[in-house]
Each structure stands twice: as structure tokens, then as C-alpha cells.
Design brief:
- The chain is an all-alpha fold and 151 residues long.
- The protein contains five helices and no strands.
- Among the domains are: 23-64, no CATH class; 110-150, no CATH class.
- Helix content is 40%, strand content 0%.
- The termini are far apart.
Length: 151
């Protein structure tokens, strides 16, 4: 009897479809490129001696440390239901990283401000005819993401 618990051993070497004469390719049939001793993808084939490389990839240890530091700050907060300082800090970090396509946050120029002003005027004109509430807009302001975070 084996010491290995049920379901955690290596897969059997028996053919599944009755083709006993053919040899299976080691990379097909559920075995990974790590070899027969590596049924779950850990080990030399998927990250060397580091078993966490298969889960976390090539994560920088500094990033992991910063994530744990931020988690510690979140768990140690004793104020109200929202930690506004941390929310502002995370918003600043998100804005400074930019968008996934590499676009950085740019300040709003005169053409964008004019477009926002015209869009608000058009919305006000349309809503004025279909609602009984008076217009409440006095001025328009267009902000960049960083300006919005700091407002």
C-alpha cells in the first residue's frame, strides 16, 4: 500500500483510448512540460526552485512589500467607515500610473474646456424642455484626473 493519499499520486501510465501500441508524447495527456514528476506545474519547469513563481510570475518583491504595507495601513485604520487619506493616496497613485495603453494624465486645454462647456449647455437645453426643474448650472469646470483627485 502506498503512503500517497488518494488522488495525489502521478497519473497512471495506462492508455486511455485503447491504443497500447503507441507511445504518448510526454506533453500531451495532462502532463505538463515539467515532466512526469511534475503533474501540477510546479518545480523546475515552471519557475525553478521557487514554487510561488508559478502563481505570482515575475512579481517584484518590492511591489509585494508595498502591497502588504498598504494592507497593514487599511487594517490598522481606526477612524470612520472610509479612510479618506488612504483613498486619496490610492487615487494619486492610480492617476500617476496612467492608463493601460500608456497614456499619462494631461491637463485640460482650452479646446477641451470649450467642448465641456458646449456639452453642458446642450444637456441643459435638452433637459429644460423635458423636466420641470430649473437649470442649476452657473458655471462649467473641466478637470484632469489629477485635478479631480485634489479638488
Amino acid at each position: 500500500m502506498s503512503d500517497t493519499p488518494f488522488g495525489f499520486g502521478l497519473p497512471p501510465e495506462e492508455p486511455e483510448n485503447g491504443d497500447e501500441g503507441k507511445k504518448k508524447d510526454p506533453t500531451e495527456g495532462g502532463q505538463s512540460a515539467g515532466g512526469a514528476g511534475n503533474p501540477f506545474g510546479f518545480g523546475p519547469g515552471a519557475g525553478g526552485d521557487n514554487p510561488f513563481a508559478a502563481m505570482f510570475g515575475s512579481m517584484n518583491p518590492n511591489d509585494l512589500g508595498a502591497a502588504f504595507q498598504q494592507l497593514g495601513q487599511m487594517l490598522s485604520y481606526e477612524g470612520g467607515p472610509v479612510n479618506w487619506d488612504m483613498a486619496k493616496q490610492i487615487a494619486r497613485q492610480t492617476v500617476s500610473q496612467g492608463t493601460p495603453d500608456g497614456t499619462k494624465d494631461a491637463s485640460v486645454g482650452p479646446s477641451e474646456r470649450t467642448a465641456v462647456d458646449e456639452a453642458l449647455r446642450l444637456a441643459d437645453l435638452w433637459l429644460d424642455g423635458v423636466t420641470s426643474m430649473p437649470s442649476g448650472s452657473v458655471s462649467t469646470v473641466a478637470w484632469s484626473r489629477a485635478e479631480w483627485v485634489e479638488a
